[in-house]
From TrEMBL:
UniProt keyword Cytoplasm, yes or no: no
PROSITE patterns linked: CYTOCHROME_P450
Keyword Oxidoreductase: yes
The organism's place on the tree of life at top rank: Bacteria
Name recorded for this polypeptide: Cytochrome P450
Lineage: Bacteria, Bacillati, Actinomycetota, Actinomycetes, Streptosporangiales
Family: Belongs to the cytochrome P450 family.
SUPFAM superfamilies for this protein: Cytochrome P450 (SSF48264)
Organism this protein belongs to: Actinomadura alba
This protein's UniProt keywords: Heme, Iron, Metal-binding, Monooxygenase, Oxidoreductase
Cofactor list: heme
Length: 443
């Protein structure tokens, strides 16, 4: 379906203000295919699980790099998100060991330690924007857990600069392209922030190269692993550091905020989750191995990621002409698919807008397991997010700790989704602290 110029202008405004809702409205009006815009700003939307399968199964046609070009100034030319081919595959293989069970256990421990410190500072009556808290918490623990204490010492200034750039990148793709092309104060501030980020990260890389031992963590792993015999360059290392920090905290902090919003909005679900945590964990810290004993919290995590997938959309650039659902696309077209739209299709999901963790109970009569193209909060196949297991563990563990140690009243109502790099709650998620319990000794 192609729209008129007036339709395009209205859609452009909607995408900047309410991107998730705009895509869902577009899919309802147009069906599986819609296009809007003209020339270099033209966008083709392919909606639904069939579209997702078509895009993911045709990686030779749809390239990641072209779809995420606006992220290159921040993520870097060699970041996994924006690269294709052998270079991407080599770098992905090198970093995969950092997301195995033992390192993930360590990262989760850092996060929970920092969370306990944060909870210790809360007092009854405090009003807390959890989205703001989670962004700082996950970012600082990611930098510390992934890249060590030296870089973590600068997490406040790094975070401030990252926020400047991410603010610019949370507009729709056409607006991002304009802001990075036409001189403006927003882009000038972003470029200055990028320069400071580069200097700080490259200084840490240089420090480690000059040391006798590159150290531990992800950066140490990448500096000591050669894979095909070729060491990673400083540029590859810089891009890996920055992109992993951003990918880890931008999406996870949003997902955590949505999880609290959804769970604390439903008193029945909240009560069941709290009961499971108290019976299943007792006084124990919700470490990775213990989360397996909390199936309902796992359903809560899955349901949160269905309703509020942090990556609500993905983009590709077509390398050649293609045909889908009767629509003929051209080489060079920007193609967008949407996890958010797919996850709320009534033909796939019963009562799709309802927060219902029990839908993930495999023992439930009528349970139907969704396919990889119907439920894809972390992507599909060889390009599935490397940190998906860590993200799920972080969501479940933080929810468990909040249920163990706090009594909170949700103050935010009718929170609207916004953003592009990650779908976050507009205006945050505000709670009132009613009570905070001290961590209980084990044994």
């Amino acid at each position: 379906m192609q729209f008129t110029l007036l339709d395009d202008l209205r859609l452009a405004r909607e995408f900047d203000q309410r991107m998730a809702y705009a895509m869902r409205d577009l899919s309802r009006r147009s069906g599986p295919v819609a296009t809007y815009g003209y020339g270099p700003l033209k966008t083709t939307f392919l909606f639904g699980p069939e579209a997702n399968e078509f895009i993911f199964r045709n990686s030779s046609i749809f390239r990641w790099r072209g779809g995420f070009e606006t992220l290159i100034p921040l993520a870097g030319e060699t970041a996994l998100l924006v690269s294709d081919g052998p270079g991407h595959d080599r770098r992905r293989t090198l970093v995969q060991p950092a997301f195995q069970r033992e390192p993930v256990t360590g990262y989760l421990g850092v996060l929970l330690d920092k969370l306990d410190t944060t909870l210790d500072s809360w007092r009854p009556g405090d009003r807390i924007d959890l989205y703001r808290i989670f962004r700082s918490l996950v970012r600082s623990s990611t930098i510390r857990g992934f890249f060590g204490p030296e870089l973590a010492a600068h997490h406040v200034s790094l975070g401030a600069d990252l926020e400047v750039v991410l603010h610019l990148l949370n507009y729709s793709l056409p607006k991002q392209q304009l802001l990075q092309t036409v001189p403006n104060p927003f882009w000038r501030r972003a470029k200055a922030a990028l320069a400071r980020i580069d200097r700080r990260v490259r200084a840490e890389i240089t420090r480690r190269r000059n040391a006798d031992d590159p150290g531990d963590g992800v950066l140490g792993l990448l500096m000591s692993t050669h894979g095909d015999g070729l060491a990673m360059t400083d540029t590859e290392l810089r891009d890996m550091v920055v992109s992993l920090i951003v990918a880890s905290y931008d999406t996870t902090s949003a997902a955590l905020s949505w999880a609290v919003y959804a769970l604390w909005s439903d008193r029945r679900a909240w009560a069941r989750a709290r009961s499971e945590v108290r019976e299943g964990l007792g006084a124990r810290t919700p470490e990775l191995g213990l989360l397996r004993g909390l199936p309902y919290l796992d359903w809560v995590t899955s349901e949160t990621l269905r309703l509020y997938p942090p990556a609500m959309a993905g983009a590709r650039k077509a390398d050649e002409d293609f045909t889908f659902a009767g629509h003929r696309g051209r080489a060079g077209d920007l193609v967008v698919f949407s996890q958010y739209v797919t996850h709320r299709l009534p033909r796939i999901w019963a009562d799709p807008d309802r927060f219902w963790p029990e839908r993930w109970d495999r023992e439930r009569p009528g349970y139907r397991h969704p396919s990889s193209y119907e439920y894809l909060p972390f992507g599909v196949g060889a390009r599935r997010c490397l940190g998906s297991n860590l993200a799920r563990a972080e969501i479940a563990a933080v929810l468990a700790r909040l249920l163990q140690r706090t009594d909170l009243t949700l103050l935010s109502r009718d929170v609207q989704p916004t953003g592009f790099t990650a779908m976050f709650p507009r205006g945050g998620v505000t709670v009132r602290v009613d009570h905070v319990r001290a961590p209980l000794p084990v044994g």
